[in-house]
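Give me structure tokens for this 335-residue protein.
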Amino acid sequence: MMTAEALGLLEELAAEGVSPWWAACPEEQPPVLDAVRSGFRGIRMAPGTPLVAVRAACDALRACGGVVAVAAAAFDGADDPEAWVAAARVLRSGVDRPNLLVGVPATWAGMDATTRCLAEGIGVESTLVFSVRQYRAVLEFQCAGLERARARGMDLAPLGTAASCDLGALDAEVNARLNGFSGDAARELRDTAGLATARLLYWQRETSLAGERWQALRASGSRPPMLLWAGTRPEQVRSLVSWNTGHVMTTETVETAARGDRLEGDTLMGRHEQSARVLRELAQRDADLDDVTAELLAARSAWRYRAAGLIARMPAQRPAGPRTRYPSGQAAEPP
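Here you go.
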């Protein structure tokens, strides 16, 4: 059972529009119903979890509008979008629940597969997102998939989309690069990459949602894409609060975070300019986020694929359809 303080934190997060997700790791397996009763509104289950357990989790969360995410497994076909689509079809067919999100990495093959999955009515969590440029591409491919689903006459309301950023991995990689620099400025930049990136990802999501394509999808019943934070340290939980975001946490993380101060409202909105300055300072110290993203994709994937040049190609390769137009009427870049 979770402590009263931990349960109170989950309630606070939900009141701020933040969806608490339970990271169902093998070392920690409380009953799913207990997790749902505690206030978790999403569950990320490990690859290979028995399908009967995934179905039970989906059923437990449907009443409160929650979702379950499980990673697909393309293995040797990691460079082939069709391999990811095939793996997603197998998982979706085996679970057969509308609130399942199939986890697909935000590589080029994975993003192409994301569009195809959504076009077939398969909800997707785009994983391994680490930079604004990468996330902009993810949003484009998710948008294209939802547009294709709409063109096929599908109901968009139950079709979920999410993207997750492992902030812990991002901070660790950037901190390792900063170790080569001395001085107060370098020390002060430690542990800043994750929060700065989260704020810029949120800015990108909100800016994109103001564009005509996403507005049209919303008018057709589509839910806005969710942003998930994973790998967060307990002290970071209160720094990552804003509408339609989620924290993927173990109960241990929740318990530790609950010992801190109360939430202080939205901490992501309107912070993009300051965050962009932080990333520019990091880039001057061998921690350019596009390079870091390519490194993390290569290091954290459970397969081998060609990471070189992946990020550099992203602006030039987009799914079919017009570019997102922003309120100014221009095709905007992040700050």
